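Fold it.
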Amino acid sequence: MSVILGIDPGSRVTGYGVIHQRGRKLIYMGSGCIRTSQKDLPSRLKQIYAGVSEIILQFKPDVFAIEQVFMAKNADSALKLGQARGSAIVAAVNAELPVYEYAARLIKQAVVGTGAADKTQVQHMVQQMLSLSSKPQSDAADALGVAICHANTNKTLLALAGKASSAKRGRYR
């Protein structure tokens, strides 16, 4: 049905995860991390953009999903995270992909069942849901969680749309 690219943004490490959604089945395609090596932020942002662009070329996703920025105690960290997100989003928009954003709590709830889940719980559930032989790296697991969240949200919306249209058909017959 569709290939979903999930991104867990970070100014030093940006996780990515790609899944193929076929109906209710989720198939693992790939995951990993874009690790920036530059010291200055503009160079790191360029590396994130280039890395996400390369992943888009490699996997040819239909949809781009990314974690929203949350307000941290350190405003400087939140700003850098926002800029990293922006670099990844620009890569998606340049590839003409639709962009969806999800809150961290919603992603954890979709994967683990609780918005207060920790990273090891997310890793374990991603491994189970995608039938992986080992736990993915933490940032890659988070990105796969973003993709899973989008797939689950998309399934729910499609189901609701189907119920609404069948209810309308029944009402007018």
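Residues 138-172 form the longest helix (35 residues).
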